[in-house]
Amino acid sequence: MNLITINNLEKSFGGVAAIADISLDIPSNRIVAIIGPNGAGKTTFLNLLCGFYQADKGQIKLGDLNLIGLPTHKIARSGICRTFQNLQIFNNMSCMENTMVGTHLNFSTNFIQAMFRTKKVRIQEKQAKKQAEEALDFCGLSSFKNSMANQLSYGDLKKLEIARAIAASPKILLMDEPAAGLNDTETKQMGALLQKIKNNGISVILVEHNMELVMQQSDYIFVLDFGSLLSQGTPADIQKNPDVIKAYLGS
Predict the structure, then answer these.
(1) In this structure, what DSSP letter does residue 152 have?
(2) Is the pTM of this model over 0.85?
(3) d(Cα 62, Cα 10) in Å, to the nearest integer?
(4) pLDDT tens, residue by residue, 212-244
(5) 207-241: burial string, b at 16+ Cβ within 10 Å, e else
(6) Rounded CA gap, 177 and 207, in Å?
């Protein structure tokens, strides 16, 4: 079953095609990797999926919902959340507070209700704390919930950003180089966390340069090159594809 269907997707910057007429189907309940050489259009592709960039042409459909033209907050509410290569953490806030930021998509209060801390606000705040605690526990960060974010190691900060995304109860988690900057032990922990996320019913679409992590953890791989879809298949298919080898290593 396909999770996302993409038809004739295009995006250019200053006349240069970053994404060039891509059509593909992303399967559900999978860890799907987007790989390719530097400048292949991988991060641009993620940015189109979550609405940070608007496509020049094409369709991105999540079920029957066409995501093209939707603002980022509506795409997030549809179930697509995102983590970043460059960490977007509030260092002057605790881990609990950082994670609670992700829960705001699940609740709604207006300014007057918030100002007077009505019963609805208090109930939602309690629910938000519960969801944040569960997300921190899921990512192995329970012992840090009251710690300031700037006290965490880089590897744990990566997990904190994932916890914040999970607190939003996503259907799909977009991840941009989750293993960047991690040592071997932290990379193995990240791989285990990816599998845990998938087993919890959240589909993962990741951009990643660590080929060991990609080949060990991915169920399916799409390869981009100069903004075009070069190849797709299982890790075994991709490893022996001569076009992929040429794109990475040259002829």
Answers:
(1) S
(2) yes
(3) 17
(4) 999 999 999 999 999 999 999 999 999 999 999
(5) bbebeebbbebbebbbbbbebebbbbeebeebeeb
(6) 5
